[in-house]
Amino acid sequence: MEVFSHSIALMMWAMISETCDTNGGEASHVASPDGASASPPLAVQQAAPVIHASPPMPSYIPPFGVRTIIGCVGMLLAVHVAGFNEHVTENGLADILGAMHISHDDGTWLITIYEAFNIAAMAFTPWFYMTFSIYRFSIFMTALMALLAIPAPFMPDVTSLCVLRAFQGMAAGCLPPVLMTVMLKYLPPEIRVFGIGGYAMSATFGPNLGLPLEAFWFEHVGWHWLYWEIIPLAALAVAMIAYGLPRDPLHMERFEKFNWFGLMVGLPAICSLVIVLYQGDRLDWFRSATITHLAFWGGAAFVVFLINEAFHPSPYFKIQYWRSRNIQASLISLVGILAICGLLSELPATYLEEIRGYRPIQTAPVALVVALPQLIMLPLIAAICNSRRVDCRYVLAGGMACLAAAAWFGTWLTPDWVRDNFYVIQILQVFGQPMTVIPTLMLATLALGPADGPFISGMVNMLKGLANAVAFAIFAAVTRRREQYHSVMLLDHHGANGTTLQGLGDPIQQQLAGTSPDAGHVAHNALEVFHTYVHEQSVVLGLADIYFGLIWVCLGYAVLNVLLPRRVYPPRAPAATAPAH
Q1: What would the pLDDT profile of 2-39 be if each residue is shown by its tens digit?
Q2: pTM above 0.85?
Q3: What membrane topology does the UniProt entry give (predicted)?
Q4: What domain range is 448 assigned to?
């Protein structure tokens, strides 16, 4: 019995020594049961704090400093370059089509194909940068995106240009998930929320800067630079990434468990669904065989893809995250908030273009009112959310209230508005956009551990891209239907009540009476002017209807995010000491 007790004591001493060694080499004060040195009483040992060292950083990650900051800023610049490549060519599509002699219907496929591969690439990017390394993958994709811009203005036909834009969209779509991982992996916990704010710039600053950049390049340099404007910025981004980001190693052994089936099924599924969203309204939705087949087969393939992701040992993203209330609320909110921001940016531009006939250079100040203050507002909101005394859910609700107020001001829209009338709406978005996007990203990312970053980044960025497609589809469908409804109602009222006003005369025909001696020509011109007025009124009423609907959507999201998600706290470095248990 005495020998047995002595053996147990030796085993316990060995376990304690091993544990203390792994927790920072603090085993020197623990004496052997057979040693002559006196050890503190057991109660004293339990009361003394045990030092828990932080997990060791990988050897390839240098200490945080100026070099790391340069690499992160370079990655941020690369993502903005990808955004400019998307939004500048989208806003300048009419000018590009005219210069390249492409029809409008064919030109819509340039945007559709680019967006389809851009969004699909976001879903699969994390697996590839974990395999090929963040450093090499980001440099290669940034350089590829820039190099593909060189031949773009010289493509001989629409088909070849669509193929080129597909590869360019794929390369650009690979960059935002890398940025999210870089900000969460390489920044210290104390400033990680500022990294989230930097990522949020791609959703607030970049899209609003696309229209002014398009106006500048086309009006002052030339239409070729709508493609080429990304080349110098991409070269700078590559240089900063090459200098600043850590040289993480390759992990080619991951190909042994490569999810081939998920890629073969998921890529066409996502592309099909994006094409449905971008082409659905133009092709009249399910009255088109193309849209019907893409929606049915794409939807079925997407369901198979999700089932495969749930059970595959090496998934592109984990469906199990949706069991978390925070993930549910934040990802649903992310799609809605980015769609709302997209609609609020599109409405003034559409009004000024269709009703006032503005060129992009004339509309640019409206977009700059939102874009430029983001350079101040994003760090400010990040600093507020980085305080542990501030609940980011209430910041998000306050931002939704600002966007609801902006939509309420938009319901006052009339055909007499000019550019200056939109400034109040845009100023409210200056506050509302960062107050909604940053807390939403915090709720989506801070509730997870570091190992979950690659799996959540692909999901977040794919949904971020889908939000733009959803906003485009909603805007196209609702605008057309509400415009048709109001046009029918206005003409119906005119037909029903026109005879009661005959005694007052026709003011349009009276104004045009002196323009021509031919009464038939005057009557034709008067009818054209009348239909122009009806079109203007119906467009304005349709846009006001969208503003009215956005009020309730914003308020609904504000309530949702106060009630559904659990509170998250900004990250902090682990404490140097922790009480023993």
Answers
A1: 444 444 444 444 444 444 443 434 333 433 334 334 44
A2: no
A3: Multi-pass membrane protein
A4: 346-498+508-569
